[in-house]
Amino acid sequence: MRWLVRLAILALIVVAVGLWLTRPRTDAPDLLAGLVPDADNGEQVFHAAGCASCHQPEKATDETRLVLSGGQRFPSPFGTFAAPNISSDPEAGIGGWSALDLWNALHHGTSPEGRHYYPVFPYGSYTRMAPQDVVDLHAFLETLPADPTPNAAHDVPFPFSMRTALGGWKLLFLNDDWVMQGDLSPQLERGRYLVEAMGHCAECHSPRNLLGGLKTGADWMSGAPNPAGRGSFPDLTPPEMSWSESDLVEYFTSGFTPDFDTAGGHMALVVENLAHLPEADRAAIAAYVKALPLD
């Protein structure tokens, strides 16, 4: 009987250590202490981060794009996820969140209630965002309309419905290291921040492994199948991406390609966001794309 008791104790210790290692992480309030919010910069962060693209209601027009009531649905091999309400409504939305709550959501994928968020919320990229930009984004979100639309439920089957397992996913794939390394120019550093952090471009344009983690190295930004099962996201590395930097800047501004086609689908919403940024930022994104592929 002693070996059974010892085995049970060992199993309990292993489970306890595993739960501790995979617990939802948060940071202390002093991380954001002394940062003064700038809602004007927060508006630029909002557009760069593409918040409206996912959280605006279905078929939103110009007048309703800033009503972030959620509801869009995103099919994937792991289930179908519904974008939540992130309006300033204190009950249905995130109007009751502090800047620290937003930081923990973006940086750790942890809710104010201490639960793991699914990585369909691209905190795998947002984790690289700077504290000041998060504080500024929080200030801007507070200026947007409140909407009482309740959140739609995700349709995620077992075992993916077990959020505890997401802690293990984070241990494997969540880190704030930059993918493009080296001695970068100021323009490339800005482009890297816009692409790898706020713009979360790789979430669509990079392939994933069986567990849903983004592949890096030569696979980074090399295109990926659409998780909804319709078509694919294009390869942004040469020779597939043959556009010049000026072609890319024009595309990010107007949606027109060098072949006189236009951006469609979800990319049209991305262009709407990018068009709000300073031209220097669009040029920085173009410079990053033209610096691909990575070794």
Automatic annotation (TrEMBL):
Name of the featured protein: C-type cytochrome
Residue ranges occupied by any Cytochrome c domain in the UniProt entry: 37-145, 186-293
Keywords recorded for this protein, A-Z: Heme, Iron, Metal-binding
Keyword set includes rRNA processing: no
PROSITE patterns named in the record: CYTC
Superkingdom classification of source: Bacteria
UniProt entry tagged with the keyword Heme: yes
GO MF terms, alphabetically ordered: electron transfer activity; heme binding; metal ion binding
Chain coiled-coil ranges: none
SUPFAM superfamilies listed in its UniProt record: Cytochrome c
